[in-house]
Amino acid sequence: xxxxxxxxxxxxxxxxxxxxxxxxxxxxxxxxxxxxxxxxxxxxxxxxxxxxxxxxxxxxxxxxxxxxxxxxxxxxxxxxxxxxxxxxxxxxxxxxxxxxxxxxxxxxxxxxxxxxxxxxxxxxxxxxxxxxxxxxxxxxxxxxxxxxxxxxxxxxxxxxxxxxxxxxxxxxxxxxxxxxxxxxxxxxxxxxxxxxxxxxxxxxxxxxxxxxxxxxxxxxxxxxxxxxxxxxxxxxxxxxxxxxxxxxxxxxxxxxxxxxxxxxxxxxxxxxxxxxxxxxxxxxxxxxxxxxxxxxxxxxxxxxxxxxxxxxxxxxxxxxxxxxxxxxxxxxxxxxxxxxxxxxxxxxxxxxxxxxxxxxxxxxxxxxxxxxxxxxxxxxxxxxxxxxxxxxxxxxxxxxxxxxxxxxxxxxxxxxxxxxx
Length: 421
Prior knowledge:
Rossmann fold, 32% helix
């Protein structure tokens, strides 16, 4: 009799399991998530353990649906990430809502934690770059590489590449006028020349050109590239000036090619076209691509809006624009934003300031790979300058501007779906 009672209890328990919690929902809306940035870190941490995650595009700010496990709950608690434990039935209800043709939502399966490389000079402090800062804050692991590793084809080891605020033209960031006598400028110039010589080049500009070409090949072969600030336009300029000397004597020891503007080949670039290069070494600017000097926007009203895409038909840009707000604070940089008329027609503008005719956040396909360019230096430091203290991300755990960076970090983890438009 007792055996029958125990068997009945066991059967009732098994029948009740579906109503018990079996998923963890990490909401990403504004009202219920205390730390959006670390939420990406928990998601990445889960993928590292070979568990799949569903990214719920446009559902409560782009929430994450994870398998329920005590270690994941504990990790959320340790990192201060808000989460909800939901039943299997509730999860199915959410997924059914998302799948409805009337809803601009989609559930994307994230399968594998991407291996991340940050292209950055040796010895550079992590807080010199917004991406390394947010990766560190979110506790997402990354490795640093530079010219030698790129030229040795080590990019093939990585799924995702971030370009530091680099100058791929060999003009040392166009800091000549303001900082040519500064100890740090002299030191960095000397180190760049020594590295180029060690790699077998006569000029830094020639080394940087070949690095840019290797990065181009990485993307064309299926890599994911993300760049901010001056790495965006200087990269395209380097590609377009592959066989042209655009550097003045103070940069490379000899004069630039006469009439070099007419020799620029825009067909070689990723994103930009028809730009005019800035010839003067005394102007802190590479070309007409950047909108910094053309802006007439007060800081208090400097925002850019995120574009809305069809989650079911265009999942890629939808992933990259997931946020808890459609309006994001603007921020400056050497390359603050991009002139709309100088962006190629096959490049998607994902964030823009219409009143100033500028694009802030753009994305495109090159060969089998993808690239995203994000203007500005630091989403929570409006006018970051040389020597400024680092941003304390503990003060900005819900930063919409930093969320855009982390969207790109998770992007390669997604199970590939053919983009329909």
